[in-house]
Amino acid sequence: MKVFIKENLVLITGITLPLMLALVFYAATFFDRVVTDPPQYKAVFATRHYYHNNSKAPYRLYVKDGQLRYAYRPPGEDDSHKNWQKPRLYVYNPTTDNTEEIELPTIVDEEVKLDQPIQKLSKDNITTARKSPDGYVFEYNYRSGGNLMTELFGGGSRYRSRYVLRKGSTIVKIHSAQRYYSNAHFIGWIVNEQED
Fold first, then answer.
1. Average pLDDT of the residues in 114-126
2. Where are the alpha helices (DSSP H) in the chain?
3. Whole-structure pTM over 0.85, yes or no?
4. Which of 18, 23, 28, 54 is nearest to 168 (CA)?
5. Which residue, 28, 94, 108, 157, could crosslink 146 as a Cys pair with Cβ 3.0–4.6 Å?
């Protein structure tokens, strides 16, 4: 056995070293997940191609003094607004892993401006900070679904797009947001929820 090890030291090192490194990284990741507390704060996000940075968009969701507001302005004559759609608003609760859609006010007259708080969330305090008070971020996570063998030799790899709450290596999937692909826009965290 000693002769075999001596003659094949490079080969044995080449095989065992990557395995040991993989085990170390796995253990570190596992330990980080075990010691990280699960997320506690609800995330608010909008979908349906919500163009929050487009100045011509007639719909707008924004936070003022901790209150989420919904604004509408009639499109100008030069706006090609035929494809504008009212955004859809959601609140994700990580403690129950449920997503609730919040109904936005109906635009009765498209020629009249509207700016009002979202009634369902009017008593809640919302922050637009990227990171929640307990250290999580809402993000779009795009990664390959392959393993080491498929990465090295190809084939069998698939790509996954998903929204998650992330803190270090701890990832909480937002299952109900997956059907929106890359079209969800993070708005904020409910940091002080008031019961009705």
1. 92
2. 2-7, 9-35, 148-153
3. no
4. 28
5. 157
Output phi, psi for 71, to 5 deg. -125, 145
CA 177/CA 90 separation, integer angstroms: 9
Q: What is the pLDDT of residues 168-183, one digit of tens each?
A: 888 888 876 555 555 7
Percent of the chain with pLDDT over 90: 35
Point out which residues pair with 108 in neighbouring strands.
Answer: none
Lowest mean pLDDT among 14-18, 81-85, 106-110, 157-161: 157-161
Q: How many CB atoms lie within 10 A of CB 137?
A: 15
**Strand partners of residue 71:** 60, 115
Give the span between the Cα atoms of 65 and 63, in whole angstroms.
7
Do 50 and 61 contact (CB within 8 A), yes or no?
yes
Residue whose tokens read 């075999």 = 4
Give which of 184, 176, 190 is closest to 129, Cα–Cα.
Answer: 190
Give domain limits for the chain: 2-35, 42-192
Structure tokens at 171: 């990832």
Buried b (16+ CB within 10 A) or exposed e, 64-96: eeeebbbebeebeeeeeeeebeebbbbbbbbee
